[in-house]
Amino acid sequence: MLKTMIRRAGKCAVIAAAGLMMMSAQAAEPIKIGSFLSVTGPASFLGDPELKTLEMYVEKINEEGGVLGRQLELIHYDDVGNASSARNFASRLIRSDRVDIIVGGSTTGATMAAVPLIEQAQVPFISLAGAVVITTPVKKWVFKTPQSDRMAAERILTDMKDRGITRIGLISGTGGFGSSGRTQTLEVAEQMGMEILADVTYSGSDTDMTAQLTNIRNTKGVEAVLNFGFGQGPAIVTRNYAQLGMELPFYQSHGVASDSFLELAGSSAEGLRLPASPLLVPDSLPDDDPQKEVVQNYKAEYESRWDSKVSTFGAYAYDGLMLAVRAIEEAGSTDPEAVRNALENIKGYVGVTGEFNMSPEDHNGLDADSFRILEVQNGEWKLIN
Amino acid sequence: MLNRFMQSRLQGLVVLTLILIILPAFLSNPFHYELATQIAILAATVVGLNLLVGFAGQISLGHAGFFGLGAYFSGIATGTYGWPSVPALVAGAIIVGIIAWIVGRPILRLKGHYLSMATLAVGFIIAIILNNERAITGGPDGMPVPAFEVFGWELSPFGTYSLFGLEISGVQAWYMFSSVILLLAVWFALNLIQSPIGRALRSVKGSEVAASVVGVDTAKYKSLVFVISAIYASLMGGLYAHFQGFITPAIASFEFSILFITMVVLGGMGSTFGVILGAVVLKLLPQVLADFQDLEHVMFGLILMLTMIFMPKGLLPTLTAAVSKRIRKKTGGEA
After folding, report:
1. Which of A33, A153, A196, A250 could share a disulfide with A184, CB 3.0–4.6 Å?
2. Which residue in B29, B31, B140 is closest to A176 by CB distance?
3. Mean pLDDT, residues B258-279
4. Which residues of B touch A94 (CB under 8 A)?
5. Within a 13 Å sphere around the CA of A27, how many CA atoms are in the beta-carbon half?
């Protein structure tokens, strides 16, 4: 009699313990990280490495025990580079999936389309797109990891000034990146007291830019040429530049800072300079550079996992995810307000893109020096400063 | 009784009204309301496009251009110049109507492939202008659009409103508003189709030569319906812009034009309710398939292809034909 009672009590205890354990397992719901990226479509070169990076590091963080003892869950949608579907997916993430934070928005259009909704819904959002309008003026819930095109313009013009160049010929693409870059370059040049003597554009589908370049060559007084553009256009400009035998110092923007650009442009890229992420030259960084280790690790991990070349765009996603994780850890919860405040106060986070020092006035947290000036020498990137 | 109801011109409208009233019972979160609102706006656009494509037998591959123009006109007039929303919508529609009339007169003389190429070019030109006039349109990065506002009363998808003592959210209010707009759009289209103009249009579709022989001014009717469908697109573009709160030139793009035409063809050319179904399917499919990740686009294409192979007349006409065939068989058996 007593025996059976003890046995029963034991069973009850086991069941109760199991139930408790299950409950505590349920209590630790995963932290939901939402993302809408342009994984396919014309901007897939941005979205694809971004998604791969997010997937890979969410896996890695989960293997290491998650964040605040909770696992991460990545919910992502493909906006095909279309701003209105980006907005729809942002809405789905917020209202249907109820995510805790959003890391995404490959293009400026996609980001800006989602911003009004995100501001209203009050969900922390880390954008992976470039243009300066995303965080200027500062929006309460919106942060971003890439340097803005304005910083690129500042960095390029500063480097020109150091070389004693003050009069520039500008050639830019008419796409979103090129035209925004053009506007920023014109503004920065005026501030720095530099002159834009020639200002020509080409459209994304042009296959020959000799006419525009000849125009610049025939403009008297031009001391250097800057090309702000994206995709294959800048490669064609580079080749035409060499074909025309132009000798002026030649600059490209960070938009083409990738190894595939070097392949496209071939030997005609020789001698050109551009601002870029240190990710292109991880091994030439000096040992005391705080970014060296982060950059080398990211490159090695990405390349061994995906068997494809690392890209600076993926690095934006890396920094976005790490900033999100850090903010959640600091906040100690996923309360949106607390996470947002923590994000705003992140100081000295060393990422792949640069060192982030967020503040209520600056939701990007990078300065122009996070760009490194690289020069193409013997078909390879060489770190200048 | 049932038969007479089936034949009545308003039966479809009644069914559609019922569906729109019952639908909220199945919408569980604001995102669903948002989708339903977008579908209603796009459906109203294709109801207008269907007048041109389905009834007059003309094609327009540039309709997103008019949609985009309407959207940008509303966005710029209300955002940059502080106009009230309704005058901006109306003025935009008038301007787009005039543009459509000017380009429509010459290009509707073309037929077949030439007509589609000309309308394609119109759409491209509009998209390029929206892309390049950065100072006015914000360029490829787009521009924000203020909330819709009537006599100082703002209809924002983010607000909350009280209606007959019930508290409703902004997206629910938008859903009701867009449902009414859709019903109005359908009502107008149905009346137009039944009017002498509608008969003239169908005669143009049947045979333009025959139509002109019996005294139909084909050129006049063709450009009239082109203008009407452009005005539909412009008004809906304006509403879409207000609802979305942010627009980019992508809404005037070729892909979007194709989406409109696909809605018409998939749903059933010449069937006003069919094209609404087309809009529903094409807007919902990407959301449903989003969970399939990599296979999303393959499945999307496959579904469209199979539908067109097995239902060449479009979804609704094929389905109703199948249903009425069954009913006839049954009643025939009984008698």
Report:
1. A153
2. B140
3. 91
4. 31
5. 8
